[in-house]
């Protein structure tokens, strides 16, 4: 289905910018495209197929950047949810985003739409519970997560065989130990090259998640730098950017693998650092063979603005490759 031509008049979009553990989220509160009242999965498809120029306008330069994640707040189809949300980035759309959910909750609180307490958000892959603790702190209860395949070996050109697990935490992940270099900011270029090579090799070899789901995230795990924490992660995201936060869906996938190995039990707390040093606290409750992860982190409002979409601006709809 072709995109609808952009409107010929100036449009205004109200956004709240947040960051969760250093990872930015731009939350569109109003002024986005009309996506109807279908399921969140259907509205995500409609957004992608007909209104992708809005995604580009919000996230791509000159207004945005490759590292930024976008979230558009829409009315929920589930009346028990306070809002629906669709996540996107510089190259497309995300099934779920943990750090982004924490950012959305803080943005809703900033705008006075929620107060401290428990509530629910609807996403394209299911309902996500959350508790807003006040003062920027949020706990989300993610979608059911699980390990799909253990100890998958893959030949990565230039690196040899890499062994890791395939797991679902709201997105598909390949998780492997970081044995080549420490997970530190000064090694970001090397970590990026390694994880990009892994993801390319997964695609070439047809290694996927369940039902052919694309493994679009690669997570390296290493030792924590702070003795109060259990591990440190580096996460490659779609769009060839890395997560500055410990990654909510990535932490969920890690918790699922730990549970499958008998190394994490309900009630245990797993503290995971990011490459920049921010921390998420994770725990689980069991749901059959799967787990329901609980991720706690903090987000801060960094901006409250109106985006001006002026069709006379040659880069109104963002700088795009095509």
Description:
With 322 residues, this protein is of the alpha+beta class. It folds into 2 domains: 11-143 and 301-309, Roll (Diaminopimelate Epimerase, Chain A, domain 1), CATH 3.10.310; 146-292, Diaminopimelate Epimerase, Chain A, domain 1 (Roll), CATH 3.10.310.10. The chain is built from 5 helices and 17 strands. It has helices spanning 40-50, 52-59, 98-110, 188-204, 248-260; strands at 11-20, 23-30, 69-74, 83-88, 93-94, 117-123, 126-134, 137-141, 146-156, 160-168, 172-177, 217-222, 231-237, 241-242, 270-273, 279-287, 290-309. β9 (146-156) and β10 (160-168) form a beta hairpin. α1 crosses α2 (52-59).
Describe how the helices and strands are arranged.
Elements: E1 11-20, E2 23-30, H1 40-50, H2 52-59, E3 69-74, E4 83-88, E5 93-94, H3 98-110, E6 117-123, E7 126-134, E8 137-141, E9 146-156, E10 160-168, E11 172-177, H4 188-204, E12 217-222, E13 231-237, E14 241-242, H5 248-260, E15 270-273, E16 279-287, E17 290-309
Parallel strand pairs: 2-3, 4-6, 11-12, 13-15
Antiparallel strand pairs: 1-2, 1-17, 3-4, 4-5, 6-7, 7-8, 8-17, 9-10, 10-11, 12-13, 13-14, 15-16, 16-17
Helix pairs in contact: 1-2
């Amino acid at each position: 289905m072709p995109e609808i031509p952009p409107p010929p008049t100036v449009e205004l979009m109200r956004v709240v910018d947040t960051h969760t553990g250093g990872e930015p989220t731009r939350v569109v509160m109003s002024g986005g495209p009309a996506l109807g009242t279908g399921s969140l999965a259907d509205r995500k498809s409609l957004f992608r197929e007909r209104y992708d120029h809005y995604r580009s306008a919000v996230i791509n330069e000159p207004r945005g950047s490759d590292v930024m994640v976008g979230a558009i707040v829409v009315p929920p189809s589930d009346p028990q949810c306070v809002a629906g949300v669709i996540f996107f980035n510089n190259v497309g759309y995300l099934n779920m985003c943990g750090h982004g959910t924490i950012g959305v909750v803080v943005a809703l609180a900033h705008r006075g739409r929620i107060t401290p307490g428990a509530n629910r958000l609807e996403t394209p892959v299911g309902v996500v519970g959350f508790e807003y603790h006040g003062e920027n702190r949020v706990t989300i209860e993610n979608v059911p997560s699980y390990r799909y395949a253990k100890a998958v070996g893959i030949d990565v050109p230039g690196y040899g065989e890499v062994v890791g697990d395939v797991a679902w935490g709201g997105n598909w992940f390949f998780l492997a130990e970081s044995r080549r270099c420490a997970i530190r900011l000064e090694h970001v270029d090397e970590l990026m090259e390694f994880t990009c090579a892994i993801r390319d090799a997964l695609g070439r070899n047809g290694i996927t998640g369940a039902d052919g789901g694309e493994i679009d995230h690669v997570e390296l795990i290493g030792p924590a730098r702070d003795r109060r924490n259990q591990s440190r992660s580096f996460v490659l995201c779609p769009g060839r950017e890395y997560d500055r936060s410990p990654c909510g869906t990535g932490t969920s996938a890690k918790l699922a693998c730990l549970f499958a190995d008998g190394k994490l039990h309900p009630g245990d707390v797993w503290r995971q650092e990011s490459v920049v040093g921010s921390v998420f606290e994770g725990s689980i409750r069991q749901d059959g063979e799967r787990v329901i992860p609980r991720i706690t982190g903090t987000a801060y409002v960094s901006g409250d603005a109106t985006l001006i979409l002026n069709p006379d601006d040659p880069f109104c709809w963002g700088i795009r490759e095509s």
